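HUMAN:
Just now I want nothing more than another pair of eyes on a protein record. I would be glad if you read both lines and explained how they fit together. I have put the entry right below:
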Amino acid sequence: MRHRPRLLDRLRTLLAVVLLGPLLIAASPASAQFDFGFEGNDEPGFNDSRDRVGVELLLSRSSVAPGGDVVVAVILDMQFGWHVWPGPVSVPEDLAEFDGAIQTTIAIPAAEVAPFTIHDGFATWPEIHGVLADLGDGPIDYAVYEGRAAILVPVTIDEDAAPGAHDLTIDVVFQTCDDRSCLAPAEVSLTRSLEISTSGGGTTNEDDPVFAAFDPAIFAAIRGGAVAADIIEFDVFGLTFSVDAAGGGGFLLLLLVAAVGGLLLNLTPCVLPVIPLKIMGLSAVAENRRRCFTLGVSMSVGVVFFWMVLGGMIAGLKSFQSISELFQYPAFTISVGAIIVVMAIGMAGFFTIQLPARFYAIQTSHDTLGGSFVFGIMTAILSTPCTAPLMGAAAAWATTQSPGTVLTVFGSIGTGMAIPYLVLSAFPDLVKKMPRTGKASEVVKQVMGLLLLAAGIYFVGSGISGLTVVPGEPPSRLYWWFVSAAALASGVWLLVQTWRIADRWTPRIVFTLVGGSVTAVSIWVGLTMTAKGPIDWIYYTPERFADAVAEDKVVVLDFTAEWCLNCKTLEATVLQTEAVVAALDRLDVVPMKIDLTGDNPDGRAKLIEAGRRTIPLLVVYGRDGTELWKSDAYTPGQVLDAIEQAGPERP
């Protein structure tokens, strides 16, 4: 089902091509209506929001002619004394919003193209009431929905719609509370059958009071080209802002933000090891400006090409749901690692591997157009295990939109990532100082080759770890010793060769410091990555999460994987700081980890439930299982504040 007017989708599809060009429902048997038999069912033990709310989907008319309109009512019928929290609307100033509450939301699930458009962005939300409640902060007048409340959603039928019955589905999420406590939130999928008939007719419910609040002028605005607000929230190390992707200006701003996120991908641990390789490749042809720029463009096209293909897979394959999903297949991770190992051996030049002639059909040399293109693809592939600031939220939003929008946003991410290589190739003076011949050049290649070898071993090892891991248990990390050994060899080799060939004291001192730092960091990485660490992690299963909520505990959920270097970096620099470790060690806090190294369908489902498609991601849940805060780029202070938001420490 489409989320956007057909014209806007076409414009966005066209924009996707432009980006690439320069660089290359009668109700179903259940009717989703709930009858819980409230009569005589007042004993304690209710723990689901549906236990106090009846949910129904009602159409203003059952049959609509092509080009016509129909209003869909999502009805929440709450038992007396119970209420649900408001949706994404403004709350009156004299009423408060409960921190950590699950807002009432509606969403249109992904489905086959239908001959109508559900305009959930133009929904009319119920009237907000004030209820005095004490939910831990004293008596406060909270903004709520109560009684019989209806969310009214306009639906327009295509002019060329063929007659027939079609399912119309809307998902609704809500949380039910009384004046003292809240039940676990619920997510319900509601389906009705809508008959499209050239004669219209059919039964009508337009006289039902729930439809009285709907303004028919909304349909005129929709057909006049009005665009509903579509807010995307960003949080970058505590700097928060939002972008309204609705309309041309807002969407272009989102593309700019996505491009900046793609640019920042080059600074992640996944991509940094290969950047010096490209700099060295460009420096070798820096004297020929035209050739240098052509090779840079070729690599940039390879980067954007991969991101567009990735976007196409997400838009077109229902089984492919996240950017990093390729690395959840150990065979893919091992294959990428093996390719990097071969590249590293060839670069270091310690010995030569003679492969069969068919392996040289595709040139991977930096000084060929095909080789630069393939290198661009490889660089983009290596970026997918990591998430840069800004990129995660933009990509997560895009995956819920039309195929044209997905391709456009992913093309923007790829364009942003390719910009540094275009700049370096357009201004070759920036790379001319890199040594291209002589002993110094050979040492640089050998050191970079060993570091690249460490990266290749890392991917091979994490892939093997994915083959052996058991969901709910920690994966093996022994391969980190081999990664550390290769990196250690690069540092030692730089130290030895510096004192062997350097004639002046300045380069000796500089490169001795560099080599010593690489050596020390390599040893530290081996020790820390194989150690248990200061946090007593519990590995996620749905049952363990439910148990933690049942025990009235705060859950700090870390989405990670062995192939996610960003995840490792955030864990070491943020989660393992003294203050955060102390907070996670509280008896009423459960540090829980979802490891997506191997096949972990429950973990992937939880990631999608959190509204993201990329890792790293940290989510803090309140004592009732409600999501309080989440971020893919966070600080120790943010984590501590989120835990404190759940309330003071309990014995």
